[in-house]
Amino acid sequence: MQHSPAFDHTLTAFRYAYPLDRLLHQFKYHQQLSLGHLLANRLFARLPTLPALAQPDVMIAMPMHPNRVKERGFNHALELAKQAHHQWQVPLEMEGCTRIVDTPAQAGMDMKTRTRSLRSAFATNAQWHGKHVMVVDDVMTTGASMHAVAKVLKRAGAIRVTALVLARTLKS
Description:
Blueprint: E1 9-15, H1 20-29, H2 33-46, E2 58-61, H3 66-72, H4 76-88, E3 98-99, H5 111-118, E4 122-123, E5 132-140, H6 144-155, E6 160-168
Parallel strand pairs: 1-6, 2-5, 5-6
Antiparallel strand pairs: 3-4
Helix pairs in contact: 1-2, 2-4
């Protein structure tokens, strides 16, 4: 990496590969909410408690633009964040950060294109001074979305941002 990401840590339980990729696709694009519950439960089986270093003050879901929520019928990251909130009793801020630009789907884009696409895509009106914020999402591919959100949160005063994702794409 030439530049460090704006987020400080990543917690994940799975590598993004078959068959998990197919299950996540069904969850996200075909409203298979029960798969989201199943996958979150597997995450909690692998991470039954949060490491002390990763204990956040608050968590948020990766923001989705309202047009995308309307199209899908739900925010998959918010569904996962609700389950993490119940599991770990970490306060969940439902509207702590918003996606203000309806960016194209990130799938298939390289890191440079993703980063360019996400410039100024997120905003927050909340004050995060001195807070450790956990951002919940399903998959981290390049980390560009997480980086963009973390930058916004840190500009608003967050001292640390931890990414919690079900799966991460790793180079072979």
